[in-house]
TrEMBL record:
Protein name: Tricarboxylate transport protein TctC
Top-rank taxon, per record: Bacteria
Keyword Oxidoreductase: no
Metal-binding is among the record's keywords: no
Amino acid sequence: MMFAQAKTLSKQWTNTRRQTMNGQPLRRMRILAAVTCLALAPTWAAQAAYPDRPITFVVGYAAGGATDILARLVAKGVSEELRQPVVVENRTGANSNIGAEVVARAQPDGYTIYVGSIANTINRTLYSKLNYDLREFAPVALLATVPNILVVNPKVPVKTVQEYIAHAKANPGKFNCASSGTGSSINMSCELFKMETKTNILHVPYRGSGPAVVDLLGGQVDSMFDNLPSSIGHVQAGKLRALAVTGAKRAPQAPDVPTMLETGIPELKDFNVVSWFGLTAPPGTPPEVVKTLHDATLRALKRPEIVQAYEKNGFDAPPPPNTPQTFAKWINDETERWGAVVRAAGLKAE
């Protein structure tokens, strides 16, 4: 359309120039020049630099969980970097699959972005039918990693992992473990724990970590392998009792809580699980849009207020280099790793 307009206007310009050279008024030539600029203005406006309107970060879990907490932190920083509003929209259900499918169907224009997590790579094998594959999304950047933390309601009569195992074996199928949904890293941490310790712990899934923690605090459920950020405040306030973290090292926010590896339980000598979160765009998003988002995200993660919030909430900054290419490999590796675990455990969700 632009080239057709230009060709027509060029022809008009040539005719006008000839008329001017033959004595036509110069004023007519100036008017045509102004008309040319006005005619091309809509085309230039349509090519305005990204972004020129608000961006939406879609979270597949309810408000209050680790994914939501992180999304809101990063959204604020990216908004300030790009000078456009970035809103967080919670589209819950099916262990974040509903939110992921919303973004998979969205226009690949950079205005609808998915806050993906480890759950989406687990779901690839866990669910027999999915309408998306996170490996087909356009990776933007890894945002953070966090260990999970095994917490119990203070009324549960256990203070160590050894006592937790003994209590579970004394109450097979009755003692329970909540999660943010079937296939989440919270659920998978518990499933791995059950496999390794040969315990029968009842799984109680929720539509996000936030609602699960509410019921854990209220005593409706007994325990949870929660993401550290959504439970650490309750641990520090004495409202939940922490037994162990699932990462390879202790969390600075809970220095007195041992790792699973430090418990000395032989069955848990290789127990190491961390959750992770990252930004992904719909398949087919232009590389230049991805780059703009990626660069803004990395700048946002360096902002002092976000660095401090990470430290307070227990998020670990992603290891460098944090590029769309390295994040793509990360997603692929995690899909393969958890696919093997899901198949070994015989897990299925519909």
